[in-house]
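Data card: per-record layout.
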Amino acid sequence: MKLKGTLTEKAYREELKTSKFHLFNDISRRRFLNIIRETFPAMKTAHVLSWTPDQGEDIISFLVDTHSVIKIELDRYDNL
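The structure for this 80-residue chain is written out next.
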């Protein structure tokens, strides 16, 4: 699939930039960022690929440093 310069590519790019900004700057995302940093100590960047809110937990997939995709499931009510 060729996306070079298309509106779709621009939309995806903007979504990824926004997700990265919120991951690194939003205090409510700090739990996820800490887990990623523990798993990938040399991490330079991470982007949210998908976010699935469930009844009691959040399931989020991340792209870490353009080479690793990870999935994190965290209980929404356990803020430890």
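Known properties of this structure: The chain is about 35% helix and 30% strand. The two ends are 42 Å apart (CA to CA).

See the next section for split statistics.
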